[in-house]
Design brief:
Layout lengths: L6 E5 L8 E5 L8 E7 L2 E9 L12 E7 L20 H14 L11 E9 L7 H13 L10 E8 L2 E4 L9 E9 L4 E11 L1 H29 L14 H20 L4 H18 L6 H26 L14 E5 L7 E7 L2 E10 L5 E4 L4 E4 L1 E6 L16 H15 L11 E10 L4 H16 L8 E10 L4 E6 L3 H6 L2 E7 L4 E8 L6 H23 L15 E8 L3 H5 L4 H10 L2 E7 L2 E8 L2 H15 L7 E10 L2 E7 L2 E6 L20 E9 L5 E4 L32
Parallel strand pairs: 5-6, 16-17, 27-29
Antiparallel strand pairs: 1-2, 2-3, 3-4, 4-6, 7-8, 7-9, 9-10, 10-21, 11-12, 12-13, 13-17, 14-15, 18-19, 18-20, 20-21, 22-24, 23-24, 25-26, 25-28, 26-27, 28-29
């Protein structure tokens, strides 16, 4: 007997890709909505719960989204002391943000109930990437619930592999991609885009987004079908936002013209905020001391609405922005490199009231970041951290470490700069970039990209090309169809606008993007225009950056650590390490270096890291000696290992001994080597021959001037060290 009533729909993917199955009614039935998504061996459990009523005084949607990977899904045990899943990793936070940014704009504006979405990876196919499926699973869970939602939505990964656009490619295929975006949208509109590319054109980006949208429509239709199967078309009624039309009109009449005038005055961020706050205080005071909580709540909301409309109308009607600029102008820029004398590279980048102080640190292989996730695990040699302290906006708040926003903004900057780093074969360093935002009024993540480029070039990292970034905004009027695209948006324009579209790129093309929309119906021609306007702004910023530093420095800073990478044959890895690590430990101790060896593609990759070039060169010389193969005719400086009656065994290369016969020591005949050599002496010899058994014949005599014939020894005299059946031939 079954105790559950499971409903399923299937989404066919084509091209031999496993279908996606959405099912509900079997797991987590006490949640408002729950769905299990399955593709191949990958399974996601998505749940959503929303409170029946909103808390008093809340005028926003308290939405929390958590994506978590269970280690059992991949047959792994978590690392760390506790050996259990703990707080979300940066990777899980980034996926949580992808889901959140796609869902949040589609909830009704007046819906303010606490809402929680949770997505778990409970089984994993090692080649099917779960991040591209998490948004679909979350939206499906809402679709089968009674929670109000203007969806469904879905998310897909679109990549261009070998010149062909592909939806949700396998992990093993992504290494050959020239673009990779996560795109989210509803059946009619795109709501979110994030990804990276290898200097693609604006047209390629639009083509990829449009291609992704066709796949999204198919997945949205499947969710609608699933909702019908469970009878979830009817959503709960709610009234989370009271209204007072008389109060709304009174505040509009009293404040609109004054707010419009302040918005048009072109004042600074803090001066403008103070003037806006003064008007709000007057309005609140005019309500009297006995005002009730609901009226106070509505008064603040209506005043915010006045600001919203006044600023937007100013831009649409007159083309004037809060700081006095037109829609295309980028704020004044100044930058400086080598500001921190002890850092390996540093830069200040300031654009208007946004400023980043960025440093670069060069490290060894041992400094690589270990990634210990359930699905993604390994090592990362390019690290970017973004910090947003409270003083950057003139505020006071506790320092609790980086939040989700900081992790997301840092990831965008990292993905952009990663595209122009030299290949690993040309860059043996582990690189850490740290952007500390010292001032913020719009797009500090794009300031991080610009400052990061400058700091990397200051450090001598051979970037393929400099990268700049710009944040674009959008103001629309649905009634009239008017719109304005804004270059280099302010913080207030981000808050009051309809789009935040960040684009990074080189002179050749786009390398990264992040787009969030707050409206329905972004037309393709608007997106195309926004990308072209962003290209103009990016190039302007690049030209300003080049005035400070146009290309990477020819060498690293004198105080930067030195690192050399050598490739050796696999057979020599053991010889360099030595028994129990004896050889490599001795090398590190005697040369003051740090040496690492790993096997890659049947080759040994050796990295030598030291605080100075002398130590690196010394270690490299000794490793070359260990891996060198003796060559007949070459001269070597060897060490006497042992002395016999017939000659000496000389180590010409580490672990490689040859015989220096007594007759090959000098042109004159020697009866013994007593008093001539002792163990440990250094002797220069020539390699005469290597026999079939690998035995080496050495000669010192061959390097000495040949004496006149009359001064040569009597060759007819018997040599006690030469066998009788092999007499030495006369000259």
């Amino acid at each position: 007997m079954s105790y559950y009533n499971e409903k399923k729909v299937t989404i066919e993917m084509g091209d031999g890709v496993p279908p996606i199955e959405l099912s509900t009614g079997k797991l987590a039935k006490q949640a408002d909505g729950s769905v299990v998504l399955k593709q191949g061996e990958t399974m996601l459990l998505a749940t959503v719960v929303s409170a029946k009523e909103a808390k008093p005084g809340v005028d926003f949607l308290p939405l929390s989204v958590d994506y978590q990977e269970k280690y059992a899904a991949t047959g792994r045990i978590p690392g760390g002391f506790l050996r259990r899943e703990a707080k979300l990793s940066d990777y899980e936070i980034l996926i949580s943000r992808l889901i959140d940014r796609a869902l949040r704009p589609l909830f009704p504006e007046t819906y303010h109930a606490d809402t929680q979405v949770m997505v778990w990876l409970i089984s994993s196919d090692k080649d099917i990437m779960p991040d591209a499926l998490a948004g679909l699973a979350a939206s499906a869970a809402i679709a089968v619930s009674d929670i109000p939602f203007n969806g469904p939505i879905s998310e897909v990964r679109v990549a261009k592999i070998d010149g062909k656009l592909v939806i949700n490619p396998r992990l093993s295929e992504l290494g050959n991609s020239t673009l990779e975006f996560i795109v989210a949208g509803s059946a009619s509109d795109i709501v979110m885009v994030e990804g990276e590319a290898k200097e693609i054109s604006e047209a390629e980006m639009v083509e990829a987004i449009a291609f992704a949208h066709e796949a999204i429509k198919k997945q949205v239709a499947a969710q609608v079908e699933l909702a019908k199967l469970v009878g979830a078309e009817q959503k709960r009624e709610f009234n989370h936002e009271p209204s007072n039309p008389e109060l709304e009109k009174a505040i509009y009449d009293a404040a609109y013209d004054r707010v419009y005038a302040i918005a048009k005055s072109g004042t600074s961020k803090h001066e403008r905020a103070e003037k806006f706050a003064a008007i709000e205080e007057e309005i609140i005071a005019s309500l009297g001391e006995e005002v009730d909580e609901e009226t106070l709540f509505l008064a603040k909301k209506y005043y915010h609405d006045v600001q919203y409309h006044a600023v937007r109308n100013l831009i649409l009607d007159e083309g004037i922005r809060l700081d006095g600029r037109d829609v295309r102008t980028v704020r004044p820029i100044w930058s400086e490199v080598d500001y921190l004398p002890a850092a390996h590279g540093s830069a200040i980048f300031t654009r208007g009231e946004t400023q980043s102080l960025t440093s670069v640190t060069l490290g060894a292989k041992d400094d690589e970041q270990m990634i210990d996730g359930a699905f993604i695990h390994g090592y990362n040699k390019f690290i970017l951290h973004y910090n947003f302290p409270s003083f950057s906006t003139g505020e006071v708040r506790p320092n609790r470490g980086p939040g989700r926003r900081e992790i997301g903004h840092g990831n965008l900057a990292m993905r952009s700069l990663k595209q122009v780093l030299p290949p690993d074969s040309e860059n043996p360093y582990t690189i850490r970039v740290v952007s500390d935002i010292l001032e913020s009024n719009g797009s500090s993540s794009m300031a991080t990209v610009c400052a990061g480029t400058l700091a990397l070039m200051d450090a001598g990292v051979k970037l393929k090309a400099p990268v700049s970034g710009i944040a674009m905004g959008l103001i629309t009027d649905e009634k009239t169809g008017r719109y304005a695209i804004l270059s280099d948006i302010l913080g207030d324009e981000d808050h009051l606008g309809d789009m935040d579209f960040k684009v990074t790129g080189t002179e050749k093309g786009i390398v990264g993007c992040q787009m969030d929309l707050k409206i329905n119906g972004l037309k393709w021609e608007v997106l195309t225009q926004a990308l072209e306007q962003a290209r103009e702004a990016r190039l302007h910023i690049l030209n300003e950056m080049k005035k400070t530093i146009a290309e990477p420095r020819p060498d690293y800073k004198p105080h930067a650590p030195r690192i050399m990478q050598m490739i050796i044959d696999r057979e020599f890895i053991g010889a360099v390490i030595g028994p129990g690590g004896k050889i490599i430990q001795e090398l590190q101790r005697e040369t003051g270096t740090s040496i690492s060896i790993e096997e890659v593609d049947n080759k040994g990759i050796v990295q030598i890291f030291a605080a100075n070039k002398e130590g690196v060169d010394a270690a490299a010389k000794r490793i070359k000696a260990i891996i060198a193969k003796p060559e007949v005719g070459e001269t070597y400086e060897g060490k006497v290992k042992s002395i016999m009656a017939f000659g000496a065994f000389v180590e010409i290369l580490p672990g490689k001994d040859g015989l220096l016969h007594i007759s090959e020591v000098d042109w004159k005949r020697l009866e013994s080597l007593d008093g001539i050599y002792k163990e440990g002496d250094t002797v220069t010899v020539k390699l005469l021959d290597i026999d079939k058994q690998g035995k080496m014949k050495l000669s010192r005599k061959a390097l000495l001037p040949r004496p006149p014939k009359e001064e040569r020894p009597n060759n007819n005299k018997p040599n006690p060290h030469r066998p009788a059946n092999n007499p030495k031939k006369a000259d």
